[in-house]
From TrEMBL:
This is Sugar phosphate transporter domain-containing protein. Keywords: Membrane, Transmembrane, Transmembrane helix. It comes from Gossypium barbadense (Sea Island cotton). GO terms for cellular component: membrane. It holds the Pfam family TPT.
Length: 391
């Protein structure tokens, strides 16, 4: 059998010849190179997802400004209507406890993501002071809790009117903290947006003294909350989910501290039937999506753009109700909404123009430079591409 095997190999070698043996070796080499390339690609993808910089690049790749703001728009409209239903028809008049349920469900979902290794990696601890994470978690509790409390005691119109004051607060805070300024054209556009929303909602201003105080107290935490979310994601390589995982426990702690002060007594006496529980759970799930989509929008744009998006929701709901649902808010309100939408269009176009100009400044400019290259057989003219950066 051994002689036969050796003879068979010799016969195969004689039939294939030298070229055949080289062909087999080449195919084996190609297969090995393909496998090696596949392993390198797999390793690079793994490293991309297991670092904070890579996770941030993936978030920016799949969730740009348009996707993030559209996502946030639909979720925000849904949760405003759902919370009004929960605190109105369902009769769950505990806004801080409702906010606490939102963040508890968010923390549970994030824990599941972490168990399944779906949670993006956080940046190294030394890159972000722990005081910044603690401050963001605490401010988030006040911003979210006071927002739901304001929605309970005030009408949706007054709630949206209070958001107008958030815009100048953000501009002032960013100037004080980061020396960030905006152009005069943007100031005019934001002024048009605010004026239009004020006119559009002037007929729906139902509030009481306590509700007005809550709305005023909500303005500053809301502005600082948006600024911190935006700056930490854009400057410290945080992703939305990773930052939510770090800050949510702190937010829950402060919401527990706020409950005795702002919630009325009797939460344990509430009737927890199937319908009520489903409505509150739907609100909690939307709360998680709102926090996530809001963080994505703040990471992709800016705090001011996120506030303008909030005013856009108000005007779209008003105009859409008039067109699709035959509602009649009045000529004054419709005119204000259209004026605000025009201001938002101008503000958006100015943002797009600035981002386009900024990207053009960082694109390498290729300038052909003629250069003579000498070879062994003589001199030969060739073109060398010189790359310069336009600063």
């Amino acid at each position: 059998m051994q002689i036969s095997s050796v003879g068979g190999m010799g016969l195969l070698d004689s039939l294939l010849g030298a070229e055949g043996r080289k062909s087999f070796k080449r195919k084996d080499s190609d297969a090995g190179e393909a496998g090696k390339a596949l392993e390198e690609l797999r390793g690079s993808l793994y490293n991309e997802l297991r670092t904070s910089e890579g996770a941030k690049r993936q978030q920016q790749r799949f969730c740009g400004p348009v996707v993030a703001m559209t996502f946030n728009f639909f979720v925000a409209v849904g949760i405003i209507l759902t919370n009004k239903l929960v605190m109105g028809r369902v009769g769950f008049n505990f806004p801080i406890f409702l906010t606490l349920l939102h963040y508890a469900v968010s923390w549970l979902l994030l824990a599941i993501f972490r168990t399944l290794s779906w949670l993006p990696v956080s940046p190294p601890a030394k890159t972000t002071p722990s005081s910044s994470i603690f401050l963001l978690g605490a401010i988030m509790a006040f911003a979210s809790g006071l927002a739901n409390t304001s929605l309970k005691y005030n009408s949706v119109g007054f709630y949206q009117m209070a958001k107008i004051a958030v815009t100048p607060t953000i501009v002032l805070a960013e100037f004080v903290l980061f020396r960030k300024t905006i152009s005069f054209k943007k100031v005019l556009a934001l002024g048009a947006v605010s004026a239009g929303v004020a006119v559009a909602r002037v007929t729906d201003l139902q509030f009481n003294a306590f509700g007005a105080c809550i709305a005023l107290a909500w303005i500053v935490p809301s502005a600082i909350n948006k600024i911190l979310w935006s700056s930490l994601q854009q400057q410290a390589n945080w992703t939305a989910l990773a930052l939510m995982w770090k800050t949510t426990p702190i937010t829950i702690f402060f919401l527990l501290a706020l409950m005795p002060w702002l919630d009325p007594p009797g939460v344990l006496l509430f009737k927890w039937d199937i319908n009520n529980s489903c409505a509150i759970l739907s609100s909690a799930l939307l709360g998680f999506l709102l926090q996530w989509s809001g963080a994505l929008a703040l990471g992709a744009t800016s705090a001011t753009s996120h506030v303008v998006l909030g005013q856009f929701k108000t005007c779209v709901i008003l105009v859409g109700g008039y067109i699709l649902l035959d509602s009649d808010p009045g000529l004054v309100s419709l005119s204000g909404a259209v004026f605000a939408l025009a201001g938002m269009s101008v503000y958006t176009s100015l943002n797009l123009k600035e981002s386009k100009d900024g990207s053009n400044k960082q694109i390498p400019v290729q300038t052909p430079v003629s250069k003579t290259k000498t070879s062994e057989n003589g001199s030969e003219d060739s073109t060398v591409i010189k790359t310069t950066n336009d600063v």
